[in-house]
Amino acid sequence: MMNAPAELRNATGSAAKVVHGDLSSHETVAIPPMPDYSGRILGYGVNTAIIITGVLQGIFPGWMLWLVAGTMLWPHAAHLISRRTFLRRSPRIRQKMLFLDCVIGGGFIGMIGLVAIPAVSTVLMLMFSCLIVGGTRQWLVGTLLMGAATAVSVASFGVAESFQSPLLTSLVSVFATGTYICVTAYYSHQQARALLLAKTQIQNQREQSIALSHKLSKYLSPQVWQSIFTGERDVRLETQRKKLAIFFSDIKGFTELSEEMEPEALTELLNHYFNEMSEVALKYGGTIDKFVGDSIMVFFGDPTSRGQREDAFACVSMAIEMRKHMKIMRQKWRSQGIKTPLQIRMGISTGYTTVGNFGAENRMDYTIIGKEVNLASRLESLADSGEILISYETFSLVKDRIMCRDKGEITVKGFAKPVPIYEVVDFRRDMGPHRSFMEHEHSGFAMYMDSEKITERERKAILAALEDAADRLRIEEDSE
Question: What is the superkingdom listed in this entry's lineage (predicted)?
Answer without folding.
Answer: Bacteria
